[in-house]
Amino acid sequence: MNWNTIISARRTGESESASDIRTNFQRDFDRLIFSSAFRRLQNKTQIFPLPGSVFVHNRLTHSLEVASVGRTLGKMAGEKLIKAGLIDEFNKDFYSFELQNVIASACLAHDIGNPPFGHSGEKAVSTYFMDNKAKNIGEQNLQSYFTQPQWSDLINFEGNANSLRVLTHQFNGKSTGGYRLTYATLAALIKYPCTSEATDKANIYTKKYGFFQSETETAKSIYKTLNIPVLSETPLIYKRHPFVYLTEAADDICYRIIDFEDAQRLHILSHDEVSGMFLEILNSIGRDDIDHVNEVVNTIGDKNEKITYLRAKCINALTLEAAELFVNNAQDILTGNFNSGLLDYIEKQNPVLKKISNISVEKIYNHHTVVELEITGFKVMSELLGLFIPAVLTQNPGHKDQKVLRLLPEQFKANSDEPYHKVMAVLDYLSGMTDPFIIELYRKTFGIEINWHV
Predict the structure, then answer these.
(1) What is the per-residue DSSP string for 422-433?
(2) Mean pLDDT lowest among 53-57, 330-334, 436-440
């Protein structure tokens, strides 16, 4: 790979871009900001239940903050790559002005494929198919409807792969190519450039998977255009696009730090515990004068504002560290030999970040309010799948299944008789819902709430 040949303004659904006062990569950002899928993130849980009496982050606010950090990372990395003499004259403008837009756009879209209730929703989909693989639907069992690669997608449902599908799939009545984002932006989004059958936690690029069987041809086109080498044809695995490291780092930095800030506001963690950890991070990274930081903190009376200040300092320090690490390891990143996320690497040098991760798992991600929401989401998603999946697969649907099928909006009806595509259409419908909407649908379809006023 070469830094000068891994970029392209080509879009899905079209070979050339129309002229515009905005650049192609700025248009990516704008298309995402104004999209309905992005707006729906405001009612998808980040960690803590929504709504609440205290403001905490949802998927939308998280994505906006990740995009802000990603833009800074892209700007710094681009300038450093030019300064290191790795960029030719023809591509200096891209690395000076456009890489930041590519990373910001990928960051905006990184959670766009997450189903309601986050990872619990993902797990509910996978578990439904595993638990019902031998269930008779029509005249055959559920698993027999699918090829092995297709079945692997379903029993390992992945929000990352679903993001690429949301952005590129042509839904009924919609434009070809989905959102028609540039290949550079899409490649910066795909953290795991492989199919579900290739999953292997030994490598960072195969820890999970990045595209369903339905998007394999799209992925092939992206990586061929961007000159990214294929590592395996069966199962399909590509080398990671270098820009992914920046998108991933922006996400990692934000959730590691901001989840702590939210936990303090909700009194799950004490003010002293959070401020102490943030100061420990700053002291460990060594980019700030800790005495000066403490002086500023002591002038702030409001406890929440103190945490806000320290959170900003931590994000800034980690962003600077990640950008420098990216460029210092540019060759290994380019060749695919850097088998670590940027923040994971920084964590090894600064064990305080591991302490934050451990506390997050113990006290935040397993807090009873979070667990209760996950259990709710698991039940809601599982029960609705139990309605829709048999209905779309049955050759001769009965009265109930016919009524269920009428609930599917036209854009989510498959233009294919192949069972896999029918099921993926159902997953498109359910995974695109907000948390409140899917709960309302569940209550109505199962008679928990009946609307008598039609």
Answers:
(1) HHHHHHHHHHTS
(2) 53-57
* Torsion 443-444-446-449 (CA) sign: positive
379-402, pLDDT tens digit by residue? 899 999 999 999 999 988 889 989
Closest C-alpha among 265, 87, 102, 292 to residue 189: 102
Pairwise CA distance, residues 433 & 279, whole Å: 39
- Residue pair 260/274 in contact (Cβ under 8 Å)? The answer is yes
- Contact between residue 169 and residue 178 where contact means Cβ atoms under 8 Å apart: yes
Please, what is the end-to-end C-alpha distance for the chain in angstroms?
A: 61
pLDDT at 411: 86
Residue corresponding to tokens 């696009």: 241
**Residue type (1 letter), 163:** S
Q: Which tokens in the block code for residue 430?
A: 């359910």
Task: Please give the Cα distance from 181 to 282 (Å, whole number).
Answer: 37
Alpha-carbon distances of 336 from 30, 206, 227, 242, 389, rounded to whole Å: 31, 12, 13, 8, 40
One-letter identity of residue 205: Y
pLDDT at residue number 261: 87
Element (H, E) at 324: helix 303-328
Instruction: Please tell me the predicted confidence (pLDDT) of residue 50.
Output: 46
**Single pTM value for the model:** 0.93
Please write down the long-range contacts of 50-54, taking CB distance under 8 Å and 24 or more positions apart. 50/435, 50/436, 52/266, 54/265, 54/266
CB atoms within 10 A of CB 382: 17
Task: Write phi, then psi, for 208 (nearest 5 degrees).
Answer: -135, -160
Alpha helix (H) residue ranges in 205-289: 216-225, 244-265, 271-285
Dihedral sign (CA 299, 300, 303, 309) = negative
- Cα torsion at 219, 225, 228, 232 (round to 10°)? 50
**Which residue in the block uniquely carries the two structure tokens 């795991």?**
192
pLDDT at 21: 59
DSSP assignment of 98-138, as one string? IHHHHHHHHHHHTTTTPPTTHHHHHHHHHHHHHHTTT-EET
pLDDT, tens digit, 9 for 90 and up, residues 21-38: 568 899 999 999 999 999
Q: Which of 185, 359, 386 is nearest to 280 (CA)?
A: 359
Q: Render pLDDT for 102-139 as a digit per residue (tens, 0 to 9).
A: 999 999 999 999 999 878 888 899 999 999 999 999 88
Whole-angstrom Cα distance, residue 444 to residue 159?
Answer: 26
Cα separation, 365 vs 344, in Å, equals 19
